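[Discussion] Sanity-checking designs against the backbone

I'm trying to build intuition for which residues belong where. Below is a structure token string of 136 positions. I'd appreciate it if someone posts a full sequence so I can compare it with mine line by line.
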């Protein structure tokens, strides 16, 4: 499975390493604490360029058979919207977790783009064992 992560050059160095050093307890997005990736390369590039003066985009090549062993939770767009509003209202962007390895579903702001939130130690280990290429 190939997925993308938009970030900055400074953060890229911490992520890629060597050794790769992805920490799923850092960061927070619309589904709370975790490390986010998406299926859409164009969106990752646009996000990185829009947010950072020194944009970087990373491509993760995750081993499908190992990903399939994780505990996954799919969320509907409606559920993500409701959770996003609650997470923002309670100021839990950096702490809220679903207690799954990976939570996935559409972006709250773009229901046509899929995001994956890696939020557990096993999910972080899988990311750190994945091949990572620099796209931008």
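Best answer:
Here's mine. Compare freely.
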């Amino acid at each position: 499975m190939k997925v993308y992560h938009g970030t900055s050059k400074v953060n890229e160095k911490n992520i890629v390493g060597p050794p790769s050093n992805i920490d799923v307890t850092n960061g927070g997005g619309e589904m709370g604490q975790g490390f986010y990736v998406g299926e859409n390369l164009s969106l990752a590039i646009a996000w990185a360029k829009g947010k950072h003066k020194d944009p970087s985009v990373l491509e993760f090549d995750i081993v499908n058979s190992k990903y399939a062993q994780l505990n996954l939770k799919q969320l509907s767009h409606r559920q993500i919207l409701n959770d996003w509003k609650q997470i923002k209202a309670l100021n839990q962007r950096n702490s809220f977790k679903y207690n799954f390895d990976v939570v996935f579903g559409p972006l709250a702001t773009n229901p046509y783009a899929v995001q994956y939130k890696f939020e557990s130690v096993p999910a972080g280990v899988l990311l750190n064992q994945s091949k990572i290429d620099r796209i931008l």
